[in-house]
From TrEMBL:
GO terms for molecular function: DNA topoisomerase binding; double-stranded DNA binding; histone H3K36 methyltransferase activity; histone H3K4 methyltransferase activity; single-stranded DNA binding; single-stranded DNA endodeoxyribonuclease activity. This is Histone-lysine N-methyltransferase SETMAR. Gene3D superfamilies: Ribonuclease H-like superfamily/Ribonuclease H. It comes from the Eukaryota. One of its GO terms (cellular component) is nucleus. One of its GO terms (biological process) is double-strand break repair via nonhomologous end joining. It comes from Arctia plantaginis.
Length: 86
């Protein structure tokens, strides 16, 4: 990279602020599961499948399209924690 004049920027090995599953998918799944109780593993699996099937066609695209904004917020905060904003 140095030969090409590129600079490697430090970054955390894992950041929930940057993982779309953490800030988008699981947040929506949590909201879907609010108030539901499960007694069997099959019921949990059925609820998960119901969640996935009930998402609109553009659900995943929206989550991916939010990535650049999340990345920029992390850069602006210099990697520090920031509160979720819709």
């Amino acid at each position: 990279m140095q030969e090409l004049g590129l600079e490697a920027l430090p970054h955390p090995p894992y950041s929930p602020d940057l993982a779309p599953t953490d800030y988008y998918f699981f947040q929506n799944l949590d909201n879907f599961l609010v108030g539901k109780k499960f007694n069997f593993r099959e019921a949990v699996q059925n609820a998960f499948e119901e969640f996935v099937a009930s998402r609109p066609a553009d659900f995943y695209k929206k989550g991916i399209n939010k990535l650049p904004m999340r990345w920029q917020r992390c850069v602006d905060c210099m990697g520090d924690y920031f509160e979720y904003q819709k």
